[in-house]
Fold:
Amino acid sequence: MKRLLLLFAITWLPLAAWCDDGDTFMDNTVEGVAITFMVTSEANKQCQVGTDNWNSPAVNSSTTGALTIPSNVNGYSVVSIGGQAFRDCIGLTSVTIPSSVESIGFAAFCGCSGLTSVNIPESVTYISGWTFLGCRSLPKIVIPDNVTYIGESAFQECSGLTSINIPDNVTSIGNYAFSGCSGLTSINIPDNVTSIDGAFSGCSGLTIIDIPDNVTSIDGAFSGCSGLTIIDIPDNVTSIGDYTFSGCSALNSIDIPDNVTYIGESAFSDCSGLTSINISDNVTSIGNHAFSGCSGLTSIKIPNSVTSIGEYAFDNCSALNSITIGNSLKSIGSNAFYGCNSLTSVHISDLGAWCNIDFGDSPLRYAKQLYLNGNVITGDLDLSTTVTTVKNIGNYAFYNCSGLTSVNIPNSVENIGNYAFYNCSGLTSVNIPNSVESIGDYAFRQCI
Structure:
């Protein structure tokens, strides 16, 4: 009987005396709310709120109202809030975090849609990914000065957030950190930040934003920022990534810095307010759908550096009436100019470079006027005096050039592409040399 009593006594000794790192215990002395804690260091008597288990939050998801997290419990100092600790506690309205807390884990308050107030103590140095994702009732939050890192999607879909100050010590802002914060009208980006990929996509209330000179990557950063009217891209940016300004319908002009070499897929798609854009001379590639739906653009110049234009790159640029093509262009993707019904002129300066383009589509489908060094190509076209080394006349090269009356093709040409002279309705004579080995489909269709 004495041995049984002794065993019973040992079993009910204070828990703190018997815990190992990773052990958990529950405390309900804080406002009657049962909170699960996990020992992180028995040696230092430290613990965290929750267990980092996605399926086992620190409190019951039905917890409501205000909650104050203790700085000490059962003899342990509370030094962190674990991952998913309060996930989907939609009834939680405010949380007070003690100054003993140094870190807040992944998705700690994710889905707390009723949360209106939370303090982050100065002891916290980084905000993990998904920390406040979906806290759409949160109107403001103060990020401590010691924070250096804001994780991926940390404040995503905090649509009620109207203001936020990012401290100067922040050096990294994760992908989609503020994505969907539609209530934000302005935001500061610290000078030490170098990347803001996707960070502000869907912030439809933003009108102006100042990007620091140190930023080198802005991929997808402002997609869906429909209120953005002015933006300056820093000189250190080397690429405009996929969807970076997609849907920025209020943006009316933009200059692309000299160091940019690539304009990504849908980078400026549906920027319907864009009336002018300056593409720098170092850009080599324009991606698929890059300017799709830019219905306000009236003219565009493709610099000599560009070698490829992607599929649907300018489709439905319905106001586009003039385009200038550089001499280095090698390929134009299919439907690149689909729906450009206002296009009237295409300007080139090198006829040989034009003939060598691999056309998946041609602006001449709509323009019907090809200009060489400012003069419309019409009447007699003697290619033997201008393109003596060209082996191919590409698909659509002279499509719809109805002003042509005769064409002399040089002996260097081996292939005439599909639709090359389609609908050149004024043609009365064509000289095709013996060097030509293939003539594409519909090459001279409707040349009557």
